[in-house]
Design brief:
By secondary structure, this protein is mostly helical. Helix content is about 70%, strand content about 0%. It contains 6 helices and no strands. Helix 3 runs parallel beside helix 6 and helix 5 packs across helix 6. The longest helix is centred in the middle third of the chain and has 32 residues. It is extended. The termini are far apart.
Length: about 180
């Protein structure tokens, strides 16, 4: 057997692990309390106001009944009882699919268009009035137009996502390309 060393470690060698290293400092705890008390009080005040409002109004559910309904809703998120009765998980996946298609189409059109606008001043001047006219239109204004044009909610939703996300892509790509130094 090896005998333990009786010579002490030099002062320059520090132990690799200290049990107190896992504990947060008093300053860290103080900062955590300072940054979390106001949001917690705001959430509690909101829930209290909501429960008072629900108590004195008809038809408005309170926080507890909303929580219970949410537990039921999220208990089985992927059930499928036909096209009009599916769990919230399938609805979220369908929505994310529409967002992906709409945003992807906007990227396919918007990035090359923004590149061309940023590169060619004539094209920028030609398309600036059209972009300035269409960019501020609200997605809520595009929705009835797309429903009338497509006669179906799925392509309408994809179009609204497309038309809402193409303008920031075009403008930011054009500004980025325009700001590239010529050298």
């Amino acid at each position: 057997m090896n005998a333990p060393l009786k010579t002490p470690l030099p002062h320059s060698v520090k132990p690799r692990f200290s049990p107190t290293a896992l504990l947060p400092s008093v300053e860290t705890l103080g900062n955590l309390c300072k940054t979390s008390i106001a949001p917690l009080l705001g959430i509690l005040a909101f829930i209290g106001f909501w429960s008072l409002l629900a108590q004195y109004s008809e038809g408005l559910p309170g926080p507890l009944s909303t929580w219970q309904a949410a537990l039921v809703l999220f208990a089985d998120p992927f059930y499928d009882n036909g096209p009009n009765d599916m769990g919230i998980g399938w609805n979220i996946l369908n929505s994310l699919g529409r967002v992906g298609v709409g945003f992807g189409l906007a990227a396919l059109v918007g990035i090359p268009l923004g590149f061309a606008i940023g590169r060619f001043a004539f094209l920028a001047g030609m398309l600036a009035p059209i972009i300035s006219l269409l960019r501020p239109v609200s997605p809520l204004a595009w929705l009835p137009l797309s429903l009338a044009a497509f006669q179906d909610s799925n392509p309408s939703a994809i179009f609204v996502i497309f038309i809402s996300s193409i303008w920031p892509m075009v403008i930011n790509t054009a500004v980025g390309v325009h700001n590239i130094p010529d050298d």
